[in-house]
Amino acid sequence: LTKCDHMTESGFKTLLGELPKLRKLRLSTCNITDRASVIFAHTRLQSLSLSSCEQLTDKALFNISKNSTLKSLELHKQSNFTVIGLSALANLAKLRELKINACPNIFRITENSRAQTVSLPSGIRKLWIGDSLGLSQHTLMQLVRNTPQLHTLVLNHVPHIQETFIQDLARLLPRLACLGLCKLPWNFADTGLLRGLTSFVH
Questions:
Q1: pLDDT for residue 186
Q2: Contact 2, 29 (CB under 8 A)
Q3: CA distance 200 to 202
Q4: I need a surface site. Which of 5, 80, 103, 121 has the fewest CB within 10 A?
Q5: Cα–Cα distances in Å, from 19 out to 7, 25, 49, 92, 154?
């Protein structure tokens, strides 16, 4: 669904309610609200993509976190999502893939979120993070600390991440096989990290 400016809350809920077999949904520049997002908790969706749905806030992420079937989630250009909403996604027990791109506030630590512990579902396999200027090394470490199954990690334009930290991070992820590093402010030097990888993009 793209640019559905006139979609109402009741219309959106009715649409998803009438499609019980729907497993994949992409919403781009749609006029849906947090109240409408309640339906996400009651669907059998396995893949959900949200892009530039500017009325959605952390409340939508809390609703999504109640879904029991979701395996893949993509968040793109969602300026109202914060680290508080991101933390709720740890409840998605079946989530295997997470993409976060150009969400300017989702990693930003504020006074309200300073005490928030950030983590991802332990079963996650693939993580993509792009255009995230607010992502710190500390927050990234929190995100992946309890993800022993992580197989693929892609970091694109996250300037606060340093080379030595990537090496330390990879040692903490025994199953990491695919690593993508793009638009980072340093030249990668192979210090033995690449030996355990089947795919590396820089």
A1: 65
A2: yes
A3: 7
A4: 5
A5: 16, 11, 17, 22, 33
- Residue identified by tokens 């809920």 is 13
Question: What is the helix (H) or strand (E) element at residue 199, kind and residue range?
Answer: strand 199-201
Question: Left (φ > 0), alpha (ψ -120 to 50) or beta: where does 129 sit?
Answer: beta
Residue range 136-182, pLDDT digits in tens: 888 888 888 889 999 999 988 888 888 778 778 877 888 888 888 88
Neighbours of 31 (CB within 10 A): 16
DSSP 24-86: EEEEES----TTGGGGGGGS--SEEEEES-TT--HHHHHHHTT-SS--EEEEES-TT--HHHH
Q: Note the pTM of the prediction, 2 decimals.
A: 0.89
Q: Are 110 and 85 in contact (CB under 8 A)?
A: no
Strand (E) or helix (H) holding 152:
strand 152-156
